[in-house]
Input
Amino acid sequence: MLRAESRSTHDFHTRNYPLRIHAGANALTELPRELQRLNISRALILCGKSVRERTGLTQTMQKLAGERITGIFSGISEGAPAECIEDAAAHARALRADALIAVGAGSVIKGARVVAMLLGENQPLQEMATVHREGMPPLSQRLNAPKMPIFNVLTSPSSAQNRGGSAVRYRGSAHHLEFFDPKTRPQAVFWDNDALATAPLSLARSTSFEIYWWSLMCMGSAGSANPLVQASRYHAWHLARRAYPGLGSENHATALIDLCAAALLQNRDEEDGGRPWSCHLLARAAYASAVGVFNHYEAVTQSRGYAAFAPAMIRALGTRAPAVARALGQALGMELAEPMDDAFLAEQVAALVERDFLAQGWRTDLHDCGIPASDAPLLLELALRNFNANHDRMLDQHREAMLAAITQVLAP
Output
C-alpha cells in the first residue's frame, strides 16, 4: 500500500499521440516517404524569409519530394504575427494545399498549427482563441473540424516541435492570442543535421536556452511528479546541462540533437500529466512575465526574458515555495544545509541561477532594453492572461510580488 504522502504522485493520467522522429545525417530523405504514407500531393512549405533566401533547405526539400510540394510561403516572422498567419492560410487555400511542412524553429512551427486551424475551422482568429474572463479561469475553445497533416523540419531545437497549443502576436489590447487543438500535432518531426546547421549560432543558442531554462525550472518539482514525468524531467535536464555548453564547439551537431531530444521530453512530460508550463509557482511567474515582454516588445526575445525573470521571481516568491527553491539549487549543484531560513535560501538560489545564466552568456536583467519601469503594471496584466501559466488564476494571488519583480527587472 502506498504511503499517504506519495499517493498523489501515483494518481495520474497519460496519453500518447502517434509521432515519427527522423534524426541525424540525411534524415530529410525520409520526407517523401512520409508524404506518400498519407497520400499527400500538394504540400505547402511554410518558413521565414531567412530560411528561404539564405539557405538551400527549401530547394533541397523540393528536389526530394518533387511534385508532392506545391509551393513555398516564406512570410512567417518572429512571434508569428496574426497578419502573416492569415496570409499563409490564404496562400494555402489558393494552392489547394493538403498538408503543411513547417521549416524553422518556434515561430514558424507554432504558426503552422494556427494556419491549419484557420483552414480547418474557417473562422476568424479571434473567434478561435482562448477567452480570458475577469476573475474566472480562461476558456480554451474547442476546435472540432478536421485539420490537415503537418510535418515539422527543425532548423534549431524547439519545444514547439510537437505540441498542440500555439500563440500568435496580435495587434490589439491582448497583444497575443492563444489556441489549442491536439489535431494539429505533427505527423513527423525531422532533426536533420544539415537542416539544424542552417541556423546561425546566435539563433541556436537562443532557442536552445529556452529548452535549457525549462529543463532547469522543471527540476524544481521533479521529485513530486509522477514516475513517468520524473523520468522525462531528470533526463531532459541531464541532456540540456551537458549539451548547451557544446553549441558552437566541435560537438555542435550532437549538442543540437540532444537539445531536440530534451525538448521532446519536455513535451512528453506534458503528455504524462506533468504540466511543465505551470509545474510550480516560480516557473509560472517567470514564464508568464517573459512571454508578456516578448509579445509586447518585438526586440526582446523570449529567451532574454527567461534569463531575466527566473532569478527575479525566485527572489520575490521563493519564500512561498521553499521546497522548489531548494530543488533548483540542488539541480545546479548547491549543497544546502538543514535547516535554512527561507529568505536566505531564496537569495542564495537566485544568485546561483544568475551566475549560471551569466556563464551561459545571458544577462539577467532587461536594463538595456529601453523598457520603462512604468510599463510594469501593463506587463503584469499580460502575464496574468497567460493560459499555460495561469489557467487556474493561481498567479492572481501573487500580484504585488510579481509587480515588484517585473519593475526590478526593467529598471535598476
Remarks:
- The first strand starts at residue 20 and ends at 24.
- The CA atoms of residues 286 and 309 lie 5 Å apart.
- The chain is about 50% helix and 10% strand.
